[in-house]
UniProtKB/TrEMBL annotation:
<keyword id="KW-0520">NAD</keyword>
<dbReference type="InterPro" id="IPR036291">
    <property type="entry name" value="NAD(P)-bd_dom_sf"/>
</dbReference>
<dbReference type="Pfam" id="PF02812">
    <property type="entry name" value="ELFV_dehydrog_N"/>
</dbReference>
<dbReference type="Pfam" id="PF00208">
    <property type="entry name" value="ELFV_dehydrog"/>
</dbReference>
<dbReference type="InterPro" id="IPR046346">
    <property type="entry name" value="Aminoacid_DH-like_N_sf"/>
</dbReference>
<keyword id="KW-0560">Oxidoreductase</keyword>
<dbReference type="InterPro" id="IPR006096">
    <property type="entry name" value="Glu/Leu/Phe/Val/Trp_DH_C"/>
</dbReference>
<comment type="similarity">
    <text>Belongs to the Glu/Leu/Phe/Val dehydrogenases family.</text>
</comment>
<dbReference type="InterPro" id="IPR033524">
    <property type="entry name" value="Glu/Leu/Phe/Val_DH_AS"/>
</dbReference>
<dbReference type="InterPro" id="IPR006097">
    <property type="entry name" value="Glu/Leu/Phe/Val/Trp_DH_dimer"/>
</dbReference>
<dbReference type="InterPro" id="IPR016211">
    <property type="entry name" value="Glu/Phe/Leu/Val/Trp_DH_bac/arc"/>
</dbReference>
<dbReference type="InterPro" id="IPR006095">
    <property type="entry name" value="Glu/Leu/Phe/Val/Trp_DH"/>
</dbReference>
<feature type="domain" description="Glutamate/phenylalanine/leucine/valine/L-tryptophan dehydrogenase C-terminal">
    <location>
        <begin position="140"/>
        <end position="345"/>
    </location>
</feature>
<protein>
    <submittedName>
        <fullName>Amino acid dehydrogenase</fullName>
    </submittedName>
</protein>
Length: 350
């Protein structure tokens, strides 16, 4: 992997702000990426994990923040795209030291970035960050809304492919954390036949027992003989090698940045495999975060279910234009941003 030229990356990808945070006393090394605030303050989770090096943490923050911009724009939310990453294992000891230090950097942005739950963090962690940050989301767990949106996207994509129900459809669910577990339960309730895998084998066995699913090795799951592959854990799992070996006819999941490289969207299309961009399918969680910030949940379920309509629009436009679905989805999101750029909000917003 080539060295990351940060100034060039910010320019080429139209980033507004990147904050590299250090607190030697606490041992903090973290990143806050604000991609775009055209539609409103940037919202994105606080990811806490150990990276092979700090450049990998910066790359992840940039990729995730940009995807959040497109996710919020396509979902019609008054939010922009951001993300923050704490480069450390999410142990209780590390959280006690690092979350307050990170929260002070979040607070210094004056509302331009709203943190939420992500990999390695919880609603309780957001309560802690909220002691310093002016606005915090995910004080309740948005996983069920994320899962509901993924299932809505899956249902719509299967309908596009000619299958009008999930009953009897074979689905491989990778990752059984908060979101993946909800996805698996929702699919089971609709009669899907499930293969499941998780890095924690006992969690996969428990889900298999609960849902009548087949637990398989994670290395085999993405190549299984199923109709749908549904990654719900870490991103980057759809690699060139996986694309070549996929037997599924649809890839849709909750994992952020599930393609290892953007050009793999075209590779999937070339093989005739339908694909719903992750920032379309998993937008239910950010919809719930926005509802929480506004304290209005009255239309949340209907808006999450409308992810299916967005999915159909993107699949149809991709078929009409010959472009891959990621290109189409990004174009639609950027068009929304361009139409609203003159009305960019002022900060702080709290």
């Amino acid at each position: 992997m080539s060295h990351l030229d940060v100034p060039a990356a910010l320019e080429q990808r139209d980033f507004e702000q990147l904050v590299l945070c250090r607190d030697p006393g606490a041992g903090l090394r973290s990143v806050i990426a604000v991609h775009d605030t055209t539609m409103g303050p940037s919202l994105g989770g606080v990811r806490m994990r150990s990276y092979p090096d700090h450049e990998a943490a910066v790359r992840d923050a940039l990729d995730l923040a940009e995807a959040m911009t497109y996710k919020s724009a396509l979902a019609g939310l008054a939010l922009g795209g951001g993300k923050s990453v704490i480069n450390a294992d999410p142990t209780p000891e590390n959280k006690a030291r690092l979350l307050p230090a990170h929260a002070r950097y979040v607070a210094s942005l004056g509302g331009r970035y709203i943190p939420g739950v992500d990999m390695g963090t919880t609603a309780e962690d957001m309560e802690l960050i909220g002691r310093w940050a002016p606005v915090v989301s995910s004080r309740s767990d948005p996983s069920a809304s994320t899962a509901r949106g993924v299932v809505s996207a899956m249902r719509a994509a299967l309908a596009w492919l000619g299958t009008d129900r999930l009953d009897g459809v074979r689905v491989a669910v990778q990752g059984l954390g908060n979101v993946g577990r909800h996805v698996a339960r929702m699919l089971h309730a609709e009669g899907a036949r499930l293969l499941v895998a998780d890095i924690a084998a006992d969690r996969a066995r428990a889900a298999a027992g609960e849902l009548g699913a087949e637990a398989v090795d994670g290395r085999d799951l993405l190549r299984a003989d199923v109709e749908v592959v549904c990654p719900c854990a870490a991103g980057g799992v759809i690699t060139e090698a996986v694309v070549d070996q996929l037997k599924a006819r649809l890839v849709v999941g909750a994992a952020n940045n599930l393609l290892a490289a953007p050009e793999l969207a075209g590779a999937l299309a070339a093989r005739g495999i339908a694909h719903v961009p992750d920032f379309v399918a998993n937008a239910g969680g950010v919809m719930e975060c926005e509802a929480e910030i506004r304290d209005d949940f009255s239309t949340l379920a209907a808006r999450v279910d409308a992810i299916g309509d967005t999915t159909t629009t993107i699949l149809r436009r991709a078929a009409e234009t010959g472009k891959d679905v990621v290109t189409v989805a990004v174009e639609l999101a950027r068009a929304k941003l361009a139409a609203n750029r003159a009305d960019r909000p002022a900060f702080p917003t709290s």
